[in-house]
Amino acid sequence: MTNTGKHLSKIAAIALTGAVAVASMTACKSKDDAGSGSSGDDSTSSSSSSGGDDNSGGDSTPSKDLTVTLTKNGGYPGMHLRLDIKANGKWSYSKNKMVPKTGKLSADDQKKLAELASDSKLADSKTPKSDKSCSDIPVYNLKVTGGDDKVDVSTGTCGEMPTKSFKEIVKLLGDSTPM
Questions:
Q1: DSSP reduced 3-state for 73
Q2: How far apart are CA 75 and CA 176, in angstroms?
Q3: What is the pTM of this model?
Q4: The sheet that has 80-85: what strands, in order across it?
Q5: pLDDT at 48 over 70
Q6: What is the structure's pLDDT at 8?
Q7: Listed residue (44, 17, 1, 25) closest to 146, CA to CA
Q8: How far apart are alpha carbons 73 and 79 in whole angstroms?
Q9: What is 3-31+64-176's CATH number, 3.30.1560, 3.30.1490, 1.10.4030, 3.40.50?
């Protein structure tokens, strides 16, 4: 496993710790409060971010360092979608110049995302090259950042997915957010 893969495994462990903590906290909430949709509880984001400064499980890296950004450009002229996900599972989705939507991933989705994002093949992947020129094909770009590590990879110009985990991340986030 490469150094990047090892670091991403550590990041995934941190994110998983955060997901378990979130699952514990949401177990006490009603089903409506724990949903992944836009709940309008943005007032908690400032208090949550200060609470995220604590180290999880004695680890020296705060889990707030893990971020995932997925963008989708093209498919339709001028189409630009962006999804930003913080370590606490809160996401912000924007489409072109419309007002962003916000929400939170479920604990299960956070866990799955952390597992997929830590795949060493994803960390070592490159954007597929193509000799073809395809029009009307959306291009996805995935950025995973945590600590000193960063993964930045895109689909090819004709929609080729670089790895299976990349494809699964796109599907997971498409199913659990407006993306």
A1: strand
A2: 21
A3: 0.64
A4: 101-104, 90-95, 80-85, 67-73, 139-146, 149-154
A5: no
A6: 52
A7: 17
A8: 6
A9: 3.30.1560
